[in-house]
Write a structure and sequence with these properties.
The strands form two sheets. Strands 3-2-1-4-5 form a five-stranded mixed β-sheet, sandwiched between helices. The protein is α/β, with parallel strands linked by helices. It has helices spanning about 45-50, 55-75, 95-110, 120-125, 170-180, 185-195, 220-230, 240-270, 285-295, 315-325, and strands at about 15-20, 25-30, 35-45, 80-90, 115-120, 135-140, 145-150, 160-165, 275, 300-305. The protein binds 5'-O-[(R)-(carboxyoxy)(hydroxy)phosphoryl]adenosine and zinc ion.
Length: about 350
Amino acid sequence: METNRKFSTGTTMILSIESSCDDSSIAITKIENNKLIFHKKISQEKEHACYGGVVPELASRLHAIDLPNILEETKPYLNSLKAVAVTNQPGLGVTLLEGIAMAKTIAVNKNIPLIPVHHLKGHIYSLFIEKEQILPLLVLLISGGHTQIIRVENLEKMTILATSIDDSVGESFDKTAKMMGLGYPGGPLIEKLAINGDENRFELPIPLRNSKLIAFSLSGLKNAVRLTIESLGGAEAMTEKDRADLSASFQKAVKLHLLQKSKKLFAQESIKDFAIVGGASANLYIRSAYEKLCKEFQKTLHTAPLEFCSDNAAMIGRYAIEAYKKKLFINPYEIDLVHTKKRQSGTLL
Ligand code: KG4
Ligand code: ZN
């Protein structure tokens, strides 16, 4: 990141906002060289932890406090803005609205274009923060809300090749942690516990193992975890070793499921560059399994720096640079959460 200094009048920047769930984040990115000039994120994890998940109304109120506080810090850059970008879908309606309202106000007030950004496209562009794009690309997106494999041909053409038929990877980590009484978010907690666990102690089912379907499913595995906890006498009766072993066994089952379905797709797709993005892509156990798989299939693995795996405005800003060049703007008076235009196809992002 560049240090805070005065910018010449020729400098052109985009301010981007992310508020789709429980992270309030704003970034300033330089259009001509993709440089991240400013980036700040205030996470609400602590506030939601006692509820075992995100409470939308609370999240919305916290965004209403945190976003203006972060915006205050971007004052030195506001005169260099050429556009403002905001996550407009998918996400929690009441939290998306906070970011959208702020972005609309800035766009109208400064008379600059407004760029709507699809959150999942933002995650894909987390790979290219301060970098050039690598296209075409095959992407495994594993977040709290989604589990998908996407073929990215360009900014506007992204095809969903496989998707979860029930829970997402991140959600399954969160629910497993909750069932063991660990807290929220579950992913980092489970990963840490699993380091000292025996991943072969509990035999959990590998989802869709005998199915030809190239899709993901995590709810059956979650159920198996629940039954295992019950067989141990409930969460309170579990020892530290039980928790570590169950975390490791669960993580292994998720890994094997992801690898099995990815292999099937690798056999069909000739694209050489493969990436993992989204909050759960910060999991080093899953990352290292994919490093081996990519070597086996002669693919190059790409991942975002750990700080940009979970939700952030830097990835929204990076996508917005490309959208700006293609003039993918929206009238600030028309941007909304309710989509009245029919979507082109269910398989397109
Ligand atoms: O991408 P993200 O920040 O938000 C969504 O767009 O959903 O992803 C959050 C999810 C949470 O479910 C969290 O438990 C999971 O990512 N996560 C992890 C890890 N770090 C975060 N899952 C597994 N291992 C991790 N190290
Ligand atoms: Zn996300």
